[in-house]
Amino acid sequence: MKKVYFIVGSQDLYGRECLDTVAKDSEKMVKFLNEKLEYIAKLELMPIVETSEICIENFKKVMVDEDCIGVITWMHTFSPAKMWIKGLSLLRKPLLHLHTQYNEKLPYESIDMDFMNLNQSAHGDREYGFILARMGIVHEVVAGYYKHERVISQIKRFIEVANAIDFSRHLKVASFGNNMREVAVTDGDRVESQIKYGWECNYYALGDLVDIINHVSEVETDKKMEEYLSKYTLKTDNIKAVREQARYEVGLDKFLDKNNIGAFTDTFQDLHGLKQLPGISAQNLMARGIGFAPEGDYKTSAFSAVLMKMAKHRSGATGFIEDYTYDLTEDEELELASHMLEVPPSFAATKPEIQVLPLGIGGKEDPARLVFDGVTGDGIQVTMVDMGDRFRIICADIELVKQPYPMPKLPVARIMYRHKPNFELGTAAWCYAGGAHHSIVSTALTREDIAMFARLTDSELITIGNDTRREDLSHL
């Protein structure tokens, strides 16, 4: 279980009795929050910061504890911020400044200076907020009474994002083949990706994977086929092609597990030794939280794994998709998003079907894939692009909709959505911002989640939605 350290600030101006009360109140607060949040991560209370030395020791522990994904700080009383400087200078993990207080209401009839001094968060948090700003420490602020549902929800979001950032910093990405030839937007600086987000993106020879696949036993293939048939509807007589994909998934599983890899890419331009382009195998792996993107797009592969981790405890779908084609009926414009094969079944509105159909790219045998229509509801579309001197995250609000008519001849999974605020502004803003054709769509996450991730990783963020105006486009 991952943990978040909870650090409370005070000082010794008001005596030991005051500090004892601060400690007891802090214990009660952490206990309450754990009851609400411990299914995501456990909050652990650190010694009350009374001196610079205590602060330093707290943050040393934060940084050496591999299970710690972030820190929540709160000032119960006034806490002189100079004594936080040396400790905060050690911090390299996500930080939430919780601007709250132990009591919800003022005891108007009995309030005195002792109560004022003890419950002085309005003073202490402003002193603390200044030093965070002065030191340029990237952080999140949540303001409100800690027992209110809105505040709990925002703390929950912070923990989910912090968990995703921790996952990101340990993520390894395997590239089987390179970026698709001549394509620009899917390429990027892999060294800078590792510096910025922790992604270890390395090339692996496809032949090494093929060797593992070639040693997958019939028993292992049978077991994977049983899984497929329990989850999906078989709509093909070409069982051999489906078994080939089952072998691919078993082999990929072994390779990813052996190398501690959480995301991967392939490319139809490098399939030497494979009979098919991975289809259902890649789709099924994505459904289990493994990041994926085609054509060597390491950024989308890694980012999809991170966002799936962020959405782990939420209902809804999150995964890779590609912008494909439009229905441009005036005032009713829709986008049909899909890919050659690899749309994760988490987007399926009904039970996916296993089909084996020709693929006019890659020059290999007909691959098995999952075919389905997509879920509906509000969602976001997110992409990351390399602008040369920085990474840019683009997040657009969308509405996933039911397809207006059947598509019996389209041999791939698909989802359809409307752009917000409308097609003209939504797609124009995406193009002005340099948005890629590969992205991650999610009905589980929101723009607020992406904004917090961008803040805590100090990433540029451009958002598109109902609040986007025509005059905004000239600034993108």
Automatic annotation (TrEMBL):
Domain L-arabinose isomerase N-terminal: 3-166
Protein name as annotated: L-arabinose isomerase
Start and end residues of each L-arabinose isomerase C-terminal domain: 318-458
Provenance organism: Lachnoanaerobaculum saburreum DSM 3986
GO biological process: L-arabinose catabolic process to D-xylulose 5-phosphate
Enzyme class: isomerase
Occurrences of domain L-arabinose isomerase central (ranges): 172-312
The EC number(s) this enzyme carries: 5.3.1.4
Manganese listed as a keyword: yes
NCBIfam families referenced in this protein's UniProt entry, alphabetically: PRK02929.1 (NF002795)
GO cellular component: cytosol
Listed GO MF terms: L-arabinose isomerase activity; metal ion binding
Keywords: Arabinose catabolism, Carbohydrate metabolism, Isomerase, Manganese, Metal-binding
